[in-house]
Amino acid sequence: MAALLPAEWIKNWEKGGKSEFVQLCRALSENKNHDVGFRDIQQALYELAYHVVRGNLKHDQASNVLGDVIEFREDMPSILADVFCILDIETSCLEEKNKRDHFTQLVLACLYLVSDTVLKERLDPETLESLGLIKQSQQFNQKSVKIKTKLFYKQQKFNLLREENEGYAKLIAELGQDLSGNITSDLILENIKSLIGCFNLDPNRVLDIILEVYECRPEYDDFFVPLIESYMYMCEPQTLCHILGFKFKFYQDPSGETPSSLYRVAAVLLQHNLIDLEDLYVHLLPGDNAIIEEHKREIVEAKQIVRKLTMVVLSSEKTEEKEKEKEKEEEKTEKPPDNQKLGLLEALLKIGDWHHAQSIMDQMPPFYSTSHKPIAIALCQLVHVTIEPLYRRVGVPKGAKGSPISSLPNKRAPKQAESFEELRKEVFNMLCYLGPHLSHDPILFAKVVRLGKAFMKEFQSDGSKQEDKEKMETLFSCLLSITDQVLLPSLSLMDCNACMSEELWGMFKTFPYQYRYRLYGQWKNETYNSHPLLVKVKAQTIDRAKYIMKRLTKENVKPSGRQIGKLSHSNPTILFDYILSQIQKYDNLITPVVDSLKYLTSLNYDVLAYCIIEALANPEKERMKHDDTTISSWLQSLASFCGAVFRKYPIELAGLLQYVANQLKAGKSFDLLILKEVVQKMAGIEITEEMTMEQLEAMTGGEQLKAEGGYFGQIRNTKKSSQRLKDALLDHDLALPLCLLMAQQRNGVVFQEGGEKHLKLVGKLYDQCHDTLVQFGGFLASNLSTEDYIKRVPSIDVLCNEFHTPHDAAFFLSRPMYAHHISSKYDELKKAEKGNKQQHKVHKYITSCELVMAPVHEAVISLHLPKVWDDISPQFYATFWSLTMYDLAVPHSSYDREVNKLKVQMKAIDDNQEMPPNKKKKEKERCTALQDKLLEEEKKQLEHVQRVLQRLKLEKDNWLLAKSTKNETITKFLQLCIFPRCIFSAIDAVYCAHFVELVHQQKTPNFSTLLCYDRVFSDIIYTVASCTENEASRYGRFLCCMLETVTRWHSDRVIYEKECGNYPGFLTILRATGFDGGNKADQLDYENFRHVVHKWHYKLTKASVHCLETGEYTHIRNILIVLTKILPWYPKVLNLGQALERRVHKICQEEKEKRPDLYALAMGYSGQLKSRKPFMIPENEFHHKDPPARNAVPATVQNGPGGAGMPTSVTINTVRLEEGTTEETADKLKEKSQGVVKVINKTVNATPKVTTSNGNSASNSKIIKEKDDKEKSGKEKDKEKKDKTPAATPEMKALGKDGKDKPKEERANKEEKAREIKEKTPKSDKEKEKVKKEEKASKEEKSKTVVTIIESKSTAEKEREKEPSRERDLAKEMKSKENAKGGEKVPVAGSLKSPVPRSETSESEREQKRRKVDTHSSPSHSSTVKDNLNELKESSAKHYINHTTPTLSKSKEREVEKKDLDKSRERSREREKKDEKDRKDRKRDHSNSDREVPQDSTKRRKEENGTTGSSKHSKSESPSDSPRLNEKEKEKNKSKSSGKEKGDSIKAEKMEKSSSGSKKESRHDKEKTEKKEKRDSTGGKEEKKHHKSSDKHR
User: Fold this and answer.
1) Residue 1253 exposed, middle or buried by CB count within 10 Å (0-12, 13-18, 19+)
2) Across the chain, how many H-helices and E-strands are there?
3) pLDDT of the residue at 464
4) Phi then psi for 680, rounded to 5 degrees?
5) What pLDDT shows up at residue 208?
6) At how many degrees (to 10) do helices 735-748 and 654-665 cross?
7) 20 to 30 A from 497, CA-CA: which of 30, 215, 349, 1544?
8) Would you put residue 345 in left (φ > 0), alpha (ψ -120 to 50) or beta?
9) Residues contacting residue 302 through CB under 8 Å, at least 6 positions apart
10) How far is CA 832 from CA 181, 841, 1128, 1507, in A?
11) Residue 219 CB partners (closer than 8 Å, separation 6+)
12) What pLDDT is stored for residue 278 in this prediction?
């Protein structure tokens, strides 16, 4: 601050400085701003005095000027005194004494200006003493202390009650008088003031007395509150609070109890803001820290109780524990010290001061205050009052009166809620503070819940503005919070109050299940840990649940059920969690538990659904057993429980269904088990592979027949439950999504889910997924109305292309839609025209079919590549996939069976004497009604089937287009129609078989029935190996039905002629375009058909044996399942049956310890097979080997192509055929087991000798003749050894007879074929050279017969020594192969070449050759090869049987060998002559036999034609199918091939030459039979001998 006195003024003080100073002071005094002037004058005076102290100005000069200035202001002396005071302090601190002296002189000079009293007040006592104003500073100090004490600290004495009792008595009389008149608080206050003054009463004591009187007269709030408020103006603000605090302190002794009246007075004063809560709170006990400690202690105690309940206590320890507990309880019963904070809180709540109450609650741990019952009840009462108007308006149920609650008289209480919005402001908050302790007031609980219901009604119907909607949303979330934090925890603490549970469900059912489940989840997993009381309740519930579950049995379901019900009303989550954990461990609890749940409330059922889903979704549980091959038992138990409980009780399904859908979306199919169980139990739709044929048949009828005869259990009362399931699916739009997810997941199981899993488990999951889809689709089809179904299922192309649904599943889902559609269209057309004629009806039906199916025909085109439609038309494809068994046939026998059952029932009712008449009548009526329904249904189905057949008759010409070949058509038909559908379901399997038969019966153009059946029976290895367990069962059913048809045709010539005779499906000639030779259509005759059927049986056996010997789990299991299914029709031939039996027996032995499930299957099949044995027949009874045309001479001898009477295809395709067929035959032969090696070698190796000029079939006849001769000679041997080989004799007889009858031409054909085989299959260079030599030899033979005879002798002799060893070698090899391959009954071609070239030839070449054979094979060729094969099979089978017969010594064997060679030499010479004779005869007889031959040869050709391709297919590919096997064969063959091949080729030449030497037919016959018998009987030994000799040879 700038100095007001410049230094110049001081220097020239006398001249002008003095006047300047005075002037300044005047100016400052006149300044209107009082404060500024005051401060500036103070500064000016101070500076002046300071100059004096420093010695710049004399003190008398200063005193003079101050005398002038003093008059300017009244307070100038006081200002001057202040300045002196400051300078006094400053100078007393200075060390320079002169400055202090200057100051003293200045003050003395100015004494006349400032009074000494003012100075005594302001200056230090020492300074006053030095100035002489006081005598001694010490005395002065003492005096001032006394005065101050008297003034400020000495209390004025007021009279106490006992001293001045009249004044206080008058005061009490004033306050206690009747206040009902017009006495006001102001009037009384005046009287009180008078009394205080008159009797000198203590004002604080008066206030205390006013409060005491107020405590006693609480009803006079309106009087006392204003009185105290007015009185407080006379007191200090804190006085009232201190007095109250003092009162509370008085009651804080351990024995003291604070009266409620004091709490109330404090609460009222707080509410009227006469005191502050903070000020009063500190006076109350206990302290907040003590409260927190107590809360913690409670939690610890609760946890200890839980621990005790869960601990296993031994009986000896129990008594000690009980004693300790008693002591503890006695300690606890001592009264706890009074909690004044809670008392005040209760009083606040009672008078409705929510604001202060909330503040107190906030200071304490959550729910600590409300855990004290009086407080909880007070708060509940406050809520009652607050919600009253709203509850009266919207919450009271119809017909209920309820007792109205009056509002608080207090104006400051919370405002009562008139709307839901107002609820949110206060009530929801109050409820949150209540928490679980709302349980103390069930009536309030019910009111809150009813308000919730009313709100939800408004919330769901509300179509109001956006703002309102937002408000409602907020309210809704508040309601959910209240439910979570208050309602559910309170329910847990209520003592089994079922009404509250039902009341709560009334609100809960309006929530979507997502919200409900979220609330249950919080309730179960979090709420119980939030409060000590709830912790205890949880432990007690579990304890009680254990007690009940231990005692639950089927017998005491009712009492246990009641206990479970009681327990579940309050704590369902905890109880169900425990029950489910028990069910997962012990599945025998399921039934009693389901029965005992009948006393639950609706809310509890819903909670149960949630608990089930939570248990299913438990991430800690493994869904498969430790072996990783089966689904865990806990999951199976839960699924089973699910199905039972959802069926029996009205539980909402949406959550469970959505859970399954979500699991499928996540690519997990385990939980489909649940859906499967639920649909099975709720809708009564079973999916089982164990259905009998009768049940299956019933399932092809109408709904009534299905219900009566289609299921195992009687399906009763599923109407309501299936309706519930349907509603759940439709309401939540889950019907189609579940179907699509399942359909997609089927492949997901294999390609995504199945990565690391065991194949068995993957199969199980695939089956489960597929079965559930079929079951679920069946449920939708039978339960959804047409509109619902059509609305939900999109068209077939959308299903397949957009949703990527597999075709079989897509058609499965669409099929009911087409049926509904067609029937509704048909009904419309019927109504439109009232024509009743059958013809009109059919016409209308066909029209409606066209209308419905035309778009489908269009749609299916996009499902496959365009070239597919070259062979089959979209119409045929759609027809196949859209029809069902219901459309194709009427199960008359099923209808009859069920009607007869009802008749029997009615008779039983009549005979029953005990049944009361009215019940009899009812039962009979029921049976009659059912009978009528069934008959009506049968009639309806019959009409329907006739219409369908009419429609098919019209469509059939456009079905198969055959733009490529018949073979391609069949391939496409099997690939796209039959195979996918036959494994879809059991009924579909039957349908496929029926459909094939139907297509045949309709005489469909371009459909080769023979080819179709052949392809089905020939290639089963691959199909079987790629099936799951259930698919194998369905595939078995399909094969069973196919075999049934074939067996029916095979059984009787009449049936065959009638059903197949003139049908295009049995044409054996497949013409090539561009040639028109003989165009007579060739039909397969009956006998040849029987040969073909035998071939099919043989193929099935071969495939079965192969599968059984792979050692692969899937192969063995599946083939056993298939074999079990086809038992009624296969095996029919004894030797095939025995072969199977041996293999199955082997499986039983091997798998007993390793794989018990395979062992069980094999044992089951083995037993059934044995029981079928009496019905098996020898092969010669199954098909006669003698051909129908005995003297027929093949027409194929002519050298020119297309000779008279020979079908065009024969000549055109001869060469190609030979390639294809022979290679294939070789393949077949290669794979066959080697029991018959010796005979076969002779047959095959003799071939190169004979051939015609153009390589045609004529030459084959020699082979046949030769083979027959061998068979004849074998027969003679048979006679000798008959007694040793009884099992084999019938077949041998048959063979012998066949051998005699066969024409020589056919033998020649066979020889030709066999030679071709030999040419086709060489492997090494050596072999090729040998083959060339053989070819040369055969050419030379024609011109030089004599030379050959001589050669044959010499080679035969050379060979004779080597032969035994070679035979042993071959037999040994055969045995080893049998061990590796399961000893399939497969003859091996002459020189047993290793399968290398087969694998070398590329797949495509093989395929082309097969197609050539399939489509163009010539009758004569195929028939002869077929025959050849049959005989090879025969002999193989015989050899097989004879492995077990007693054997001869080695020396005998050698003799037999020599005899054989001699005989064969003679026989071949004889045959040579006959052949030349034959050639001449043939030219002569040609014209006669022209007609007969095609029949005979085509028959065989046909068998081969439809068949060779496929058989080759199966044989050529099987090694690649089971690589292990292939490896073994390759190794063996490689190791043996060189030596063996040498031996074989020499042997072949030898035999060739020897065979040309035989002369007489009769002798050769006898020899043949002898040889045959010997060979049969010594089969076993020969094997060993073969081994040894071939080893030597090598």
Assistant:
1) exposed
2) 77, 0
3) 66
4) -60, -45
5) 94
6) 30
7) 349
8) alpha
9) 532, 533, 535, 536
10) 97, 12, 50, 53
11) none
12) 94
